[in-house]
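Give me the fold.
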Amino acid sequence: MVTVSAFADEISADLKEQLDVLDAEGIKHIEFRSVWNKNVLDLSDDELRRVREALDGRGFRISAVGSPIGKISIIDDFAPHLAKFERAMDVAKYLGTKCIRIFSFFIPTGHNAGDYRDEVLRRLTQLAERAAHSGLVLLHENEKEIYGDEAERCLDIMRELHSDNFKFAFDPANFVQCGVKPFSEAFPLLRPYIEYIHIKDAVFEGRRVVPAGQGDGEVKQILQAMFVNGYDGVLSIEPHLAQASAFAGFSGPALFHVAAAALKDLLKALNQPWDGQSGDARNDIL
């Protein structure tokens, strides 16, 4: 049985509205990126306490911290970012998750990504070593304009760093927006490393994001192949149906319901049960 999670900040900046909409969809896990118009890593200790109390009171759990770690230029000073990563690890522990989403640094416009390979791996190695020491799991997401945006460079990262504490979060829409066919081209290379899947689709023409199964993201084929191989991890809904930027996305309640329905339709077509059907939220994420 897979676990359905979601970027709740795509629904609203208000925590109660986030939880109300997720409850209506039977979704009890959140990939926590922001609330009250503040990034998760910028929340005060008191704000984090309020979040945890609200989640605990309504039976929600955090599937991953949707951090912005790795979303700086590869030529930016790394020391302040490393300090921010320490905060990310503290937040993950406090919210009861082992998982932190990360990225592999923006490449300067017009530059050859390969020229920065050694520095990317040096920085990611530092993050991975700290995560391992703390018993946490880093989930590298393929994202536009970072070193690990195309499938081959994602594979390069995973071959160098894959471990119990460094795994891959597969995002079909982001591959489409990089001109890569997610199932036909990226999936065969990255399948052994996938431990988490973002449910987001897009079309090649205009790179527009659409509900899962309605674009060129080959989402149904990816899920079918994963389920055949026994995948029982997280499917995290990240709709981006109203707006998207390098650091966040938004859909609103109505479009979030559209995105959730699209995923449920795919799961039904594939005869795949998910945690919300029984009302029994899983307690063993990764």
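Residues 279-286 have pLDDT under 50 and may be disordered.
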